[in-house]
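dude i think i finally got it to work??
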Amino acid sequence: MMKILQSTGEMTSLLPSQINNTRNAQQDIVFFNRVPKVGSQMFMELIKRLSIRNDFGFNQDRVQRVETIRMDTEDQARLAALVSIYTPPGVYIKHVCFTNFSEFGFPEPIYINIVRDPIERVISWYYYVRAPWYYVERKLAFPDIPLPDPKWLKKDFETCVLSGDRECKYIKGETREGIGDHRRQSMFFCGHADECTPFNTRGALERAKMAVERHYAVVGVLEDLNKTLTVFENYIPRFFEGASDVYWNEINKYHTINKNTFKPPVSEEVKDIVRRNFTMEIEFYEFCKQRLHKQYAALRLPEIP
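look at this
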């Protein structure tokens, strides 16, 4: 991305102010509608520590029995109202699709999020919901939840894909609701509309891209963590000053957050099978990567490996 910007001459004229939606925010509240399995637990811990260091409020949604990421119009309005009553400066964190506050008459917050390679993410989710500690946590929170079938728990991802198991079929245009359609991170940017529900479709992809471009201050990339932290620090300094220091010297050194040691390796052959059905998700991920690199390039800092 850096080489492309340099070759076109765009880098010399690019300014952070031109590609920073933080300036468009109408309230000093960061809204982190976090995508599952993209390192968001780690990032939430980072924000919690930064809230003490940088003196701002830290607020997150409570644990729910059934987490609904798509809401009807009334619930979207309630969410926008809830976030807007927190005393600024502050952060609110929730697993939920992009919610346009201005559509309900509330001031625009500072939208942020993180994305991850979509194939690695879907594999991570697959084993996350099968991890023993996941069900221990769920049972403690909701004792009446039944335990899953042991055969389901033991089913590995490679077998699931190669056998054509329903759980690991990724069919273009298919709609799933339930647990929030964990297959797609683009849904968290597309929004709550019915057009966002069909899997791997151009319409949902373009809506997600448009939301990122128009509303999000920063969308970080898990695989580009150094640049992600640097862009957050420079584009939203009120909240993220010192983020790199806190991450590398506190969180990364001493904490392992939500790391699943039960996840076995998956062959590239199986990953390639899945990639063929994730074309729009991959395009969205690459779009977010390019945007992050462009924001970093505008800072004119030394290149990070």
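Residues 2-298 form a domain with the Rossmann fold fold (CATH 3.40.50.300).
im so relieved honestly
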